[in-house]
Specification:
It is built from ten helices and 22 strands. The protein starts with a strand and ends in a 13-residue tail after the last helix. It has 506 residues and is an alpha/beta fold. The relative contact order is 0.06. The strands form six sheets. Strands 1, 4, 5, 6, 7 and 8 form a six-stranded mixed β-sheet that branches. A four-stranded antiparallel β-sheet has the order 12-11-14-15, with no helix packed on it. A hairpin with a 2-residue loop joins strand 11 and strand 12. The chain has helices spanning 18-35, 39-60, 87-98, 138-146, 170-179, 307-315, 345-349, 352-361, 444-457, 486-493; strands spanning 2-7, 11-12, 63-64, 68-80, 104-109, 113-119, 154-161, 183-188, 200-206, 217-225, 229-237, 240-249, 252-261, 266-275, 284-291, 296-300, 319-323, 336-339, 365-368, 428-434, 464-470, 474-482. The protein is elongated and about 165 Å long. Helix 1 (18-35) runs antiparallel to helix 2, helix 4 packs parallel to helix 5 (170-179) and helix 9 (444-457) runs antiparallel to helix 10 (486-493).
């Protein structure tokens, strides 16, 4: 604690008495002018009478003599160390701190507020930390300073900043503290002149749609500068610094590229921050990025041999596990569940709740294979799993084998084997994209867009593709047309937003 000197204002107990003595004062001042012939001879008597009358009026108003009182209190100094403070500004702060006497609390403010209690001018340390100085939260620093106040003691807060907070609430926090009797003083920290530091602006980011985590990618920031300058570019993923570049920017618009990037599978918020001018308010831009991992598929089988589908999936670099029925917590970690034709429905019904959670909430895929014989997909019609397979298929009887007729006796026919060139038939692929509210969770909609583009990429010009989006209603985003250009799907789904309910049957 320290003693804070507070000077009271000069006050009067009876200020209204000045109106009683004012007419008499005017009369006495005018008398020398009327009794003397020249103005010069009247100046000295006029000055003496004026001085006496002023003293008399002050005594009539009963003045309260100002005095200096000392109260016990605490001094908190808030220093702005965000990226908007240049090295010249930091040095100016150090010079001001060096003039302080006694002990005080020091709060370094950027995106947070770090307190150093009981420091002196000799022990105070002021330094910017670029990795954590993307924002300035003066409101948080004021709230942190308010916690240093003790009952019955005064609190004085001194702010050293350029006055550019990037988070709202500074004015409101200061008003609350002033209403509580806290004194707040602010000193403006000047920056380098505009001729020395041109203005920079980040216009936006470009990030690719990734279909494999094994492929390196790049992120490009569009930057605009008013004059050629040297700057630093910081790349952040989910708030953590990933890479720093030293760059020379020309005047006008240019691109800053971070090449050869690789990340673990997951969802990321990518941000690029350019440090090189005095105004950081427009130096930050961000975008969302999803890095896909290796898909995992659970194949549920019966007594048949599932090796054909497992082999086909593994050829596509997909991890495959084969089981007779899903066990407790077994669906965790899988992206798709494949139900083969001979998988017993009664065993699946025991895991109905887990399957509903897997598909409905976590966005997992469910592929039910009908088969060429037997009841096919109709076996789900009367089970609790029917809602997950939204098909109304009437049960069909197993096909009857045609009667075997005895061959008629006669000459043995000649068998001729002709090998023909096999040709792949063109296909029409229709993608149904769920755009309901639940697709907005965990970047599901963005992952659906990536999957749709990947599906369109493997088609040829002989194939056809269509895209339909559904939520409350149904919208044809891409009418049936020739495939071969995945950008058609990306352009159609670029502006799609998650919206309300899911009308899958429509």
């Amino acid at each position: 604690m320290e003693e804070l000197s507070l000077l009271q204002d000069l006050t009067f107990r009876e200020p209204g008495r000045v109106w009683l003595g004012l007419p008499l004062a005017l009369l006495l001042l005018a008398a020398p002018l009327l009794s003397r012939r020249s103005l010069r001879s009247a100046l000295l008597p006029l000055f003496l009478r004026g001085t006496a009358l002023a003293s008399l009026l002050l005594l009539l108003m009963d003045p309260v003599v100002p005095s200096t009182r000392h109260v016990e209190g605490r001094l908190v100094v808030i220093v702005d160390v965000s990226a908007s403070i240049s090295e010249r500004g930091l040095q100016r702060q150090r010079d001001l701190i060096a003039e302080a006497s006694g002990t005080f609390d020091l709060i370094a403010c950027d995106a947070g507020a770090r307190l150093s209690a009981g420091v002196t001018a000799a022990t105070a340390r002021i330094a910017a930390v670029p990795e954590t100085s993307m924002e300035t939260d003066l409101a948080a620093a004021l709230r942190r300073a308010a916690l240093r106040r003790q009952p019955g003691h005064a609190l004085r807060i001194t702010i050293l900043s350029d006055g550019r907070p990037t988070r709202p609430g500074t004015g409101a926090a200061a008003r609350v503290l002033r209403e509580q009797g806290v004194e707040i003083y602010a000193f403006a920290i000047s920056q380098d002149g505009p001729a020395a530091r041109p203005s920079l602006r980040v216009l936006g980011l470009r990030a690719p749609s990734l279909d494999s985590r094994k492929r390196p990618f790049e992120i490009t920031a569009a930057v605009e500068a008013t004059a050629p300058t040297h700057a630093r570019a910081f790349l952040y993923f989910n708030g953590a610094l990933h890479r720093t570049l030293e760059i020379d920017l020309p005047a006008g618009r240019s691109d800053v590229t971070f090449p050869d990037l690789q990340l673990q599978p997951g969802s990321y918020r990518a941000q690029v921050w350019i440090d090189g001018d005095a105004s950081p308010l427009d130096n930050l831009a961000g975008t969302d990025l999803v890095v896909p991992g290796t898909p995992k598929v659970l194949v549920l089988k019966g007594s048949g041999d599932p090796s054909f589908i497992a082999k086909a999936l593994r050829l596509q670099d997909i991890e495959v596990d084969v089981h007779a029925a899903p066990g407790p917590e077994q669906l965790n970690g899988y992206d798709v569940v494949v139900v083969l034709p001979d998988a017993p429905v009664e065993l699946l019904e025991e895991r109905t709740e887990e399957l509903h959670e897997f598909v409905g909430r976590h966005g997992g895929g469910l592929l039910a294979v009908g088969g060429l014989a037997g009841p096919g997909l109709a076996r789900f019609a009367q089970s609790p799993l029917a809602v997950l397979v939204p098909l109304k298929v009437p049960p069909r009887a197993a096909p009857q084998a045609p009667p075997v007729q005895a061959p008629e006796p006669g000459p043995k026919p000649r068998i001729e084997i002709v090998e023909e060139e096999k040709e792949a038939f063109p296909i029409t692929l229709c993608l149904l994209v769920d755009t309901s509210t639940s697709m907005g969770w965990d970047n599901k909609l963005q992952r659906a867009v990536i999957a749709a583009a990947a599906a369109a990429r493997v088609l040829t010009r002989e194939d056809r593709i269509a895209v339909i989006g559904f939520s409350d209603g149904v919208r044809v985003l891409v009418p049936p047309q020739r495939a071969g250009d995945p950008n058609t799907v990306l352009r159609a789904l670029r502006n799609v937003r998650a919206d309300v309910h899911t009308d899958m049957f429509a």
